[in-house]
Automatic annotation (TrEMBL):
Chain positions of motif DGA/G: 217-219
Signal peptide feature range: none
Matching CDD domains: Pat_hypo_Ecoli_Z1214_like
Descriptive protein name: Patatin-like phospholipase family protein
Residue ranges occupied by any PNPLA domain in the UniProt entry: 18-230
Keywords for this protein: Hydrolase, Lipid degradation, Lipid metabolism
Motif GXSXG, residue numbers: 49-53
Gene3D superfamilies per the UniProt record, alphabetical: Cytosolic phospholipase A2 catalytic domain
Active site: 51, 217
InterPro entries: Acyl_Trfase/lysoPLipase, DUF3734, NTE, PNPLA_dom
Organism (species): Azospirillum endophyticum
Motif (GXGXXG): 22-27
A Pfam family this chain is assigned to: DUF3734
Length: 387
C-alpha cells in the first residue's frame, strides 16, 4: 500500500497516539517500531512514554519528522556502541544463533554494564562517595545519570517540544506522596530533567528533583501510559499504537534466572491485557450512553441525572494497534540491562519486522464504529490476528 493510502486511513482520526512502555535495553524494539511507522509516513500527534519509553518519546517529539529516525539511531548507538571485540561476538552469534552460548554472551554483556555502566547513559558512583557518607547514609543510587542529561541535550530540541507541535507526556511517580504524575506539554514546560525523572528507577538511579519535589520512574506505579491517553478530556477519535516491552503471558519458570525474568515480565507488563480490556469495556459503555441519551424524551433530557450521564458519555472511536516484544529463547532476567550492540540491533530489527507485518494489514487502521467500543489488534509473531 502506498504512503498516501495509509494517510487516507489515518486522516479520519482526530489524533494518532503512540504509547511506549519502559524496559531499559529492550527500548530499541520501540525504535524499530518507529522506523517502520516512519517508512510509511505515519507520525503520531501525541507520544506518551514511561522510563526508556519516555526517552524514545522525547527523541521523537524533539526532532522534525525527517530527523527522528536518525536521532533514535544516534541515541541507541551512543548507549549501546560496538565493543572492541564486535567481530568476534558477531561470528559467535552467527555460529550459534539460538544456543546456550548466546545466553552466556549476553550475561557477560549485562555484567559489564552492571560493573561499568553505559556510555552516554549512566556510570557507577565512585567508591569514595559511599566511604565518605558513613554507615547510615550515602548516595541514593548505585549509578550517576549525568551522562544521560548530556545525551538528551545533544539530541533533543526541547524548544521544539515546548512549542506544542506534538503533545508529549512522560510518566513519573512522586517519591514523597507515591502518586503517579504525567509531565505533559499541555501542563508543563518539558526539559531533560522531566525525561530523566520518568526513567529514574531505584535503586539504580537517583530521584530527580523538579520544583522542590523528587520523582522516580513512572513504572513503579504503572509502566503503560494507555490510561493517560484514553482518559484525556474531551475524548476524541483516536488511533493508538501501543508498544510494549514486556509480555504478560509466558511459561512457568524452570530455574531461578527464569523466575526473575518472569517476575519482571509480570510486574512491568502492568497487566496490559487487563487494562486494555478494562478501557475497552468502559469506552463501550460511554459510547452506548450517547445512543441511550439521544433516545430520552424531552422532559428527561435536562434532569440532573441525564446531565451527569452526559458528562460521562463519549461517542469517540478508539482503535488500538498493539505491538509486544517477544523474548528471544536465549534471553534471561538481564535482558533489560543487556546493552550489547548486537542485542540492540536485534531488538530494533524485531520491532521493525513486527511493524511492517502489521502494516501488511492496512484494514486494521480503519476507524471503527463510535458506538461499538474500541477495537484492539495484537501482533503475535508468526500468528497475526485481530482480537
Amino acid at each position: 500500500m502506498s504512503n498516501g493510502s495509509f494517510a487516507d486511513l489515518i486522516t479520519p482520526y482526530e489524533r494518532v497516539a503512540l504509547v511506549l512502555q519502559g524496559g531499559g535495553a529492550l527500548g530499541a524494539y520501540q525504535a524499530g517500531v518507529l522506523e517502520g511507522l516512519f517508512k510509511h509516513d505515519i507520525h503520531p500527534t501525541w507520544v506518551a512514554g514511561v522510563s526508556i519509553g519516555a526517552v524514545n518519546a522525547a527523541l521523537i517529539a524533539g526532532n522534525p519528522p525527517e530527523l527522528r529516525c536518525a536521532a533514535l539511531s544516534e541515541f541507541w548507538t551512543r548507549v549501546a556502541p560496538p565493543s572492541p571485540w564486535e567481530h568476534a561476538e558477531a561470528l559467535w552469534r552467527r555460529l550459534d544463533p539460538d544456543g546456550p552460548s548466546i545466553s552466556l554472551l549476553n550475561q557477560w554483556s549485562a555484567w559489564r554494564t552492571a560493573l561499568s555502566g553505559q556510555p552516554g547513559f549512566f556510570r557507577p558512583r565512585p567508591v569514595v562517595e559511599w566511604a565518605a557518607a558513613g554507615p547510615f547514609a550515602g548516595p541514593t543510587s548505585v549509578y550517576d545519570t549525568a551522562p544521560l542529561k548530556k545525551t538528551l541535550e545533544d539530541l533533543i530540541d526541547f524548544d521544539r517540544i515546548n512549542e506544542g507541535g506534538m503533545r508529549l507526556s512522560l510518566g513519573a511517580v512522586n517519591v514523597r506522596t507515591g502518586n503517579s504524575i504525567y509531565f505533559d506539554t499541555e501542563t508543563h514546560r518539558i526539559g531533560p530533567e522531566h525525561v530523566m525523572a520518568s526513567g529514574a528507577l531505584p535503586p539504580g538511579f537517583a530521584p530527580i528533583e523538579i520544583d522542590g519535589e523528587f520523582y522516580w520512574d513512572g513504572g513503579l506505579v504503572s509502566n503503560t501510559p494507555l490510561d493517560h491517553v484514553l482518559e484525556d478530556q474531551p475524548r476524541r477519535d483516536t488511533l493508538v499504537f501501543q508498544v510494549d516491552l514486556w509480555s504478560a503471558g509466558g511459561q512457568v519458570p524452570r530455574g531461578m534466572s527464569e523466575v526473575l525474568e518472569r517476575q519482571k515480565d509480570i510486574t512491568y507488563s502492568s497487566r496490559t491485557r487487563f487494562n486494555t480490556d478494562k478501557v475497552t469495556y468502559e469506552q463501550t459503555l460511554r459510547n452506548q450512553l450517547v445512543s441511550l441519551l439521544d433516545r430520552l424524551p424531552d422532559h428527561l433530557k435536562d434532569t440532573p441525572e441525564a446531565k451527569a450521564l452526559r458528562s460521562a458519555s463519549c461517542g469517540a472511536a478508539v482503535n488500538i494497534i498493539h505491538l509486544i516484544y517477544r523474548r528471544k529463547s536465549y534471553e534471561r532476567d538481564s535482558k533489560d540491562y543487556e546493552f550489547s550492540n548486537a542485542g540492540m540491533r536485534g531488538h530494533w530489527e524485531s520491532g521493525l519486522a513486527d511493524t511492517l507485518a502489521t502494516l501488511d494489514h492496512p484494514e486494521w487502521l480503519a476507524m471503527p464504529s463510535r458506538l461499538g467500543g474500541p477495537v484492539t489488534h495484537d501482533v503475535l509473531r508468526d500468528d497475526l490476528r485481530p482480537s
